Every structure is written in structure tokens, then in C-alpha cells.
User: Which sequence fits this backbone?
């Protein structure tokens, strides 16, 4: 009897691995052949960038692949992409976490849907309005100036460095000063770079708060999602989510322990930032009021948008009313939402929600922009003629020590074009994700069942030869208005920040930071790649970044005798 049951179990498991009913529902959509049990998961584990690009060439413009038992319908075509991104619902993101970490994660703007997403996006929006973003320019430029000082010894001594790590310190510095008014000190200290770079640091081996923060964010990015083998189990057995979660937490692997520690650290930092902001408000109120959510009158969006402040700088300007931190700081916009009820969902926004918004800003604002800037430096170092054109633009603008501001953005069309072209070639977010609506959706002539995960492969679209001539070439002229290259660009084929209601909320902020940083850096320095880095190896978890950093030597332009034409005078 036992033997028969075992055989029946094995037979059922074998049949389960073919997912016959599910696969039958998607049989009409072309795509790579799924393997037993794992589907096409292994291809995605090898490269979440190359596999979609290859499938796009073989099966495009729309295809279906399988993450274990989960079908994903993907496109590399701008017209189909528009139909996908216009939908506001993001497909469910699996999570292995339990308890407070699960509750913390369930507030993340990137993952939530419905009324909670709407209310949370409302809390973020005023900080990113067209009027508010430029006010961050001064702090961004001053962080870039710090980075320039930080690079000076390497330039003087001819040392090599991983510029991706140093740029990461810059973007964390910008997040701290612009969003929270806090100096994370990332550019002031350099303890052997233990804290930075690809999550190499175990949290226990770093000590200062800034080091801990950078280390835990790096760990988070490295270990989240498909980078974690247990996570892959959720795709193999999505119906058994609770069991997989239970096993993962009961018998955590070393990496999973690291990920939990990183999340905990982020939660703690987020909570500290919220509490500091509340304390600053209470101190300014002068009556001990801690802003505990009494302000639910919808004033959150009314702040001036002056982003220079937050917890650490709150004393500089009196708050407009109780419950608000420094006007215009990110947290000043978030704090008044504490205590609100979200429609008729029964959800009440609390301090954990606010802490998640603070941590979410750190996560979203740090690594994507760092990767984009580091990729731009790589592209320019590999294309000296484009670098020369950039240097000519900067030299025409002013002396090397003149710091750029948001008001100068129109003076740097080529710097902006270089940043955009690098976002095309190496989009830090590989895909935009949505869910097919109730009743299903027609895409590219195929009907896609309700609830299906829909993805725009941003990388595959940006490399689609149907829409980009010489897609592998770095050609910033594509983004210079009035050039023949720009005239060729298909509207909608460039989507590094996604699109629709869920378009990246930070895109203006990222563009400003990217251009101001490039200007400040290239006014003073150029960078040469160490050999062996072309073509660049990529790694993708939540974002796409360089797999092994970007190793360069730094050259001071004036000392090296650079001319406006950019070439070093030998
Ligand atoms: C070069 C830098 C950046 C890139 C390439 C990037 C890219 C993206 C992409 C592709 C999405 C998904 C959009 C969609 O599904 O349609 C996204 C969402 C998001 N981004 Fe960014 N991002 C960058 C910088 C930032 C910054 C600086 C912040 C803010 C601190 C930020 C905050 C967010 C948030 C909160 C979302 C989720 C929005 C929602 O679901 O409503 N990003 N980003």
C-alpha cells in the first residue's frame, strides 16, 4: 500500500511538473519551450537581460516564457508595451518574509496595488513635481563636488579604482541630503571600501551607520529575487507559498539570513529617520507634540517643495503646522499621512508604513542612479570621440570649478544625451511589470488570460534592431534634437523609467542628478578603462548593474594637459 501511494505521489509530481492545464491555456502564444518543472527559469537565472533579448529575436514581438509554474507574457515592442504599461496593477511579487518584515514589505510603493498604492503615491508625488525637483540641484552638485574631492588622491597617485563603488557613495549621499537632510557620510570615510560594492560586505564587518546602510542596501539588491535560490522555489510551487515560506524561515540558508539582516537594518534606519523627523517637529512645536497623526486634513501635498531639509535640518525652518517636518523634505510630506485610513480597505497608515517609505526612497534612489552613472562613465571611456564632444560642451560653459545648478540644465544637451543613451544601452531596470486585468487582454493579436504577469523587457526593447539602428553602439546623437539620428527614434521605444500611471516617480530627480554629476565630474576628470572590461559583464537582481564593477584610472584634465578636444596631449 505504501509503495503504491509513493508511486502515485511520484506520478502526480511528474505530471505536475508539466503543468498541463496551465500550459494548454498559453499554447497559442509563441515562446521558448519550457522544461519539466523549471520552465525557462534556468535561462533567466543565467541572465535576465540576455535571455529576453534572445527570445525577442527568435519569437518577438510578443512571447510567453515560464518561471517554473508561472507564465510570463513579455514584449520588446513599443506599441504592445504601451498597452501593457498603461495598466496600473503590478503583478504580485512573491515574498519569503514573515512577521514584521512581511508587514514592512507590504507597504513598499513598488510592490503594492489598489487604494494603498494610490494613497502612498500621493504621499510621494509633491517631492517629485516639476517645481520641486530642481530645488535639489544645489545639494546634488555639492555631493558631486565632494565626489570630485574624494577622487583627487587617486588622480594624483595614478591609482586604479572601481568607479561604480564611488558613484554609489555619491548617490547615497544625495539621497541622504535631499530626502532627509541627513549626512550619511558616505563620501567622507573610506575604510577600505568594506561597505560598498556588490554586497561583498557582511553586515557584521562594518561599523559606522553609513557603512551599515550602504552594506545592507547592497546585500538587499544582491540577494533579492531570483538571486536567492529559495526564492526560485516560490515559482516552482506558487500554490505552496506558505509552506515554502515556512521552510525558508525555519531552515534559513546563509544568504537568506544575510537578506533578513539587511532588511531589518533598512527597517531600523527607516524607523530612525521617521522618529528623528517627528522629534524635530515636536521640538519645534515647543509643546512636546510628536506629530502622531493628528494632522489628517489633507495638507501633505501643500508644502513648498523645497527639498533641502528633513530630519537633520528641520530646525532651520519652522514647520507649517503640527505633524509636519521641515517643509518640502520627503518626510515632511509623508508624516502627515500617518493615521490616515485608506478608503474602505480597513488599512490605517502607521509608523511602519512611513518607515517603509523612507527605506523605499533609499532603495529606489540609490542603486538605479548609481548604475546609470557608472554605465555612462564606462560608455564615455570606451568612446573617446563622444567623450571629446562632451568635454567641448563643458569647456564652452565655464571654468572647471564652476558648480552647475538645475537652472543650467539647458546648457548641457550633450551631457543629457550621453546619460540617456547609456540608459538605453544599459537600462538599470530590466523590465516593467504589470498584471493582465480581469477578463484578460488582447496583446499583439493574442488573447492573454486574466491575472497573467505581463512584462515589457526594457533591455530587449532598447536593443531591438527594428527600432534602433546599430543598437549596440553608444550614440548620444540619438537624443540630440535636430540630428538625423534623433529623427529615426520611434516614440515609446525608449522607456528606461517605464511609463503610464506607474512610471518611475523619481525620473526627473534621476535625470537632474545624472546630468549635474556628469558635468561636475567631467569638468575636472576623465576616466580610462582598465583592460579586459569590454564587453561589460552585467548582473541583474532587482536592478541591472556591472557584474564586477567598473575599474578605471582617473585623470585630472588640467594636470594631464587635456585640450577642449578631449584627447590627452601625449
Ligand atoms: C536612473 C535611475 C532610475 C531608473 C532607471 C528607474 C527606473 C524605474 C522603472 C523602470 C520603474 C518601473 C516603472 C514602470 O513599471 O512603469 C521605476 C519605478 C519606481 N521608481 Fe525608479 N528609476 C530610477 C530612479 C529612481 C529614483 C531616484 C527614485 C526615487 C527616489 C525612484 C523611485 C521609484 C519608485 C518609488 C517606483 C515605483 C513607482 C510606482 O510603482 O508607482 N526611481 N523606476
Assistant:
Amino acid at each position: 500500500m505504501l509503495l503504491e501511494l509513493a508511486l502515485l505521489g511520484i506520478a502526480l509530481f511528474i505530471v505536475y511538473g508539466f503543468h498541463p492545464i496551465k500550459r494548454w491555456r498559453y499554447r497559442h502564444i509563441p515562446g521558448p519551450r519550457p522544461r519539466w518543472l523549471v520552465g525557462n527559469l534556468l535561462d533567466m537565472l543565467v541572465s535576465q537581460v540576455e535571455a529576453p533579448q534572445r527570445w525577442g529575436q527568435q519569437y518577438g514581438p510578443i512571447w510567453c516564457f515560464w518561471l517554473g509554474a508561472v507564465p510570463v507574457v513579455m514584449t520588446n515592442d513599443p506599441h504592445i508595451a504601451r498597452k501593457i504599461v498603461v495598466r496600473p496593477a503590478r503583478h504580485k511579487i512573491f515574498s519569503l518574509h514573515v512577521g514584521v518584515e512581511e508587514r514592512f514589505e507590504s507597504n513598499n510603493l513598488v510592490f503594492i496595488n489598489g487604494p494603498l498604492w494610490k494613497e502612498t503615491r500621493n504621499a510621494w508625488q509633491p517631492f517629485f513635481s516639476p517645481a520641486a525637483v530642481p530645488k535639489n540641484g544645489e545639494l546634488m552638485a555639492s555631493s558631486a563636488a565632494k565626489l570630485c574631492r574624494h577622487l583627487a588622491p587617486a588622480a594624483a597617485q595614478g591609482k586604479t579604482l572601481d568607479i561604480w563603488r564611488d558613484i554609489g557613495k555619491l548617490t547615497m549621499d544625495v539621497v541622504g541630503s535631499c530626502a532627509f537632510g541627513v549626512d550619511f557620510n558616505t563620501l567622507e570615510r573610506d575604510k577600505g571600501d568594506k561597505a560598498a560594492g556588490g554586497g561583498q560586505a557582511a553586515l557584521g564587518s562594518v561599523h559606522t551607520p553609513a557603512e551599515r546602510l550602504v552594506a545592507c542596501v547592497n546585500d538587499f539588491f544582491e540577494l533579492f529575487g531570483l538571486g536567492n535560490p529559495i526564492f526560485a522555489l516560490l515559482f516552482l510551487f506558487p500554490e505552496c507559498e506558505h509552506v515554502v515560506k515556512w521552510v525558508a524561515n525555519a531552515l534559513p540558508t546563509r544568504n537568506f539570513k544575510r537578506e533578513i539582516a539587511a532588511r531589518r537594518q533598512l527597517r531600523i534606519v527607516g524607523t530612525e529617520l521617521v522618529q528623528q523627523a517627528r522629534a524635530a517637529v515636536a521640538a519645534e512645536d515647543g509643546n512636546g507634540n510628536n506629530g502622531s497623526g493628528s494632522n489628517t486634513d489633507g495638507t501633505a501635498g501643500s508644502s513648498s517643495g523645497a527639498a533641502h531639509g528633513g530630519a537633520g535640518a528641520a530646525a532651520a525652518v519652522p514647520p507649517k503646522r503640527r505633524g509636519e517636518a521641515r517643509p518640502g523634505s520627503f518626510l515632511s510630506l509623508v508624516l502627515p499621512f500617518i493615521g490616515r485610513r485608506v478608503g474602505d480597505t480597513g488599512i490605517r497608515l502607521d509608523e511602519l508604513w512611513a518607515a517603509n517609505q523612507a527605506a523605499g526612497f533609499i532603495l529606489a534612489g540609490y542603486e538605479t542612479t548609481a548604475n546609470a552613472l557608472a554605465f555612462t562613465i564606462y560608455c564615455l571611456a570606451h568612446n573617446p570621440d563622444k567623450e571629446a564632444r562632451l568635454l567641448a560642451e563643458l569647456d564652452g560653459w565655464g571654468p572647471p570649478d564652476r558648480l552647475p545648478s538645475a537652472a543650467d540644465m539647458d546648457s548641457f544637451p550633450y551631457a543629457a544625451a550621453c546619460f540617456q543613451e547609456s540608459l538605453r544601452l544599459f537600462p538599470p531596470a530590466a523590465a516593467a511589470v504589470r498584471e493582465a486585468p480581469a477578463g484578460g487582454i488582447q496583446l499583439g493579436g493574442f488573447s492573454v488570460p486574466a491575472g497573467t504577469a505581463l512584462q515589457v523587457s526594457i533591455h530587449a526593447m532598447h536593443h531591438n534592431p527594428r527600432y534602433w539602428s546599430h543598437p549596440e553602439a553608444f550614440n548620444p546623437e540619438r537624443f540630440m534634437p535636430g540630428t538625423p539620428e534623433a529623427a529615426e527614434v520611434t516614440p515609446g521605444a525608449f522607456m528606461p523609467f517605464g511609463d503610464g500611471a506607474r512610471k518611475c516617480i523619481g525620473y526627473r530627480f534621476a535625470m537632474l542628478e545624472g546630468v549635474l554629476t556628469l558635468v561636475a565630474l567631467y569638468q575636472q576628470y576623465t576616466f580610462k578603462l582598465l583592460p579586459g572590461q569590454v564587453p561589460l559583464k552585467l548582473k541583474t537582481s532587482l536592478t541591472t548593474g556591472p557584474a564586477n564593477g567598473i575599474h578605471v584610472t582617473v585623470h585630472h584634465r588640467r594636470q594631464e594637459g587635456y585640450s577642449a578636444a578631449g584627447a590627452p596631449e601625449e
